[in-house]
From TrEMBL:
Its cofactor is Zn(2+). This is Galactose-1-phosphate uridylyltransferase. Belongs to the galactose-1-phosphate uridylyltransferase type 1 family. It catalyses: alpha-D-galactose 1-phosphate + UDP-alpha-D-glucose = alpha-D-glucose 1-phosphate + UDP-alpha-D-galactose. Residues 254-382 form the Galactose-1-phosphate uridyl transferase C-terminal domain. It comes from Microbacterium terricola. Pfam families: GalP_UDP_tr_C, GalP_UDP_transf. Keywords: Carbohydrate metabolism, Galactose metabolism, Metal-binding, Nucleotidyltransferase, Transferase, Zinc. The gene is galT. It comes from the Bacteria. Its EC number is 2.7.7.12. Pathway: Carbohydrate metabolism; galactose metabolism. Residues 87-226 form the Galactose-1-phosphate uridyl transferase N-terminal domain. One of its GO terms (molecular function) is nucleotidyltransferase activity.
């Protein structure tokens, strides 16, 4: 495939270049090239013969809570811990017909087995149309027995590197900055899609979390509703103060749980941490999502976030499993009050022990903490102080 068969390259911040194309079944594939990349403009065509894209999944409403549950049976067929030579996120080779046709720096593509899928046939005509899409937030907020809607949305895979093994924390500062630029670009693009109400970038790391691919990657979910956690957050803001996040930031900055602090970001163990290892990372000014961050904030975030993740790994002799969840404000509500923030959690409570969500947590949502947050913060501070980039 030549550069003419791509959409026109787009220059993003920090010298990152974006190149968009399509996979053999019509799914979008986007390359984000590092500043000063050694890759050329030409990329290989995806010459695979692929099955048609699966029909968009269906959501069912839980009448007891109002939550929507997406039933995506196509996910049963996804790859499970394949060997390196069959890594589906590595660049394609003659013996590995993977998802990315060319060598890349960072690559983003639509998930082959998504939990949330297209609302309408896309430009290629290969995406099945949704049978019964949501009719707005008022429709989704209504309660009733046996209510269903098509799981309209989009799920993307974000490949941090062409390497088979690793995580965000193993990236260089330059590559981390490219990923952050990709998060910002995709947040803006996905927020503009019809029917999208919230965009959620995240990274699952480690088999203890349920990761099925060792390749360094994350995901971005775009939901047709405001997620239950965010709905509760917006309610809390309504019951307290519109500047709640600023109050939290100032409260934590004056306390004993700060892990590291820069000009634009502060990382801390929250006052009421649920998990034995939990860190929040907040920008110092109000920003609703990655798309709203400044170049200076993105520049600082790359090395600061790497230091945090490497400090988490330095706690033990083996890599720490975690979920790195980037909470963003909904697309249409709460953008002046809900602030972008990271919630990093790990079930690891000792070198050889994990915390499981048992009866009280899983059934009742009543959490029991195992480690005092101040003790966790002290250990993390010491670990982060020893990190060099």
């Amino acid at each position: 495939m030549t550069s003419e068969e791509f959409t026109a390259p787009t220059a993003l911040g920090a010298g990152v270049v974006k190149r968009s194309t399509r996979l053999a079944d019509g799914r979008e594939l986007i390359y984000f090239d590092d500043p000063g990349t050694t890759l050329g403009a030409e990329r290989a065509v995806d010459a695979r013969t692929l099955d048609p894209r699966p029909a968009t999944a269906t959501m069912r409403q839980d009448i007891l809570t109002g939550d929507w549950i997406s039933v995506a049976s196509a996910r049963q067929n996804r790859a499970f811990l394949p060997p390196a030579e069959l890594d589906p996120l590595a660049p394609q080779t003659p013996t590995n017909p993977s998802e990315v046709p060319s060598m890349y720096d960072v690559a983003v593509f639509e998930n082959k087995s998504p939990s949330f899928g297209p609302a309408l046939a896309e430009a290629t005509g290969d995406a099945p149309a949704a049978a019964d899409p949501p009719r707005g937030l008022d429709d989704l907020d209504a309660l009733g027995l046996g209510r269903t809607r098509t799981s309209v949305g989009r799920c993307e895979v974000v490949c941090f590197s062409p390497e088979h093994a690793g995580s965000f924390g193993t990236l260089t500062v330059t590559r981390a900055r490219t990923v952050i630029e990709a998060w910002a670009d995709r947040t803006a693009a996905l927020s503009a899609l019809p029917g999208i109400e919230q965009v959620f970038p995240f990274e699952n790391r480690g088999e203890a979390i349920g990761v099925t691919l060792q390749h360094p990657h994350g995901q971005i979910y775009s939901y047709p509703y405001i997620t239950p956690r965010t709905q509760r957050l917006l309610d809390t803001i309504d019951r307290t103060a519109p500047d709640l996040f600023q109050r939290i930031l100032e409260f934590e900055q004056q306390g004993p749980r700060v892990i590291l602090q820069g000009e634009h970001w502060t990382a801390f163990v929250p006052f009421a941490a649920r998990w034995p290892l939990e860190v929040h990372l907040l920008p110092h000014r109000h920003v609703a999502d990655f798309a709203a961050t400044s170049p200076e904030e993105r520049d600082e975030l790359a090395p600061l976030y790497l230091r945090l993740l490497r400090g988490v790994d330095a706690l033990y002799d083996t890599p720490t499993p975690y979920i790195a969840a980037w909470h963003q404000a909904p697309v249409h509500r709460g953008r002046d009050t809900a602030r972008l923030h990271l919630q990093l959690t790990s079930p690891r409570r000792a070198a050889d022990k994990l915390k499981f969500m048992a009866g009280s947590e899983a059934a009742m949502g009543a959490w029991i903490g195992d480690v005092p947050p101040e003790q966790s913060a002290e250990r993390l501070r010491a670990a982060v102080e020893g990190v060099t980039l």
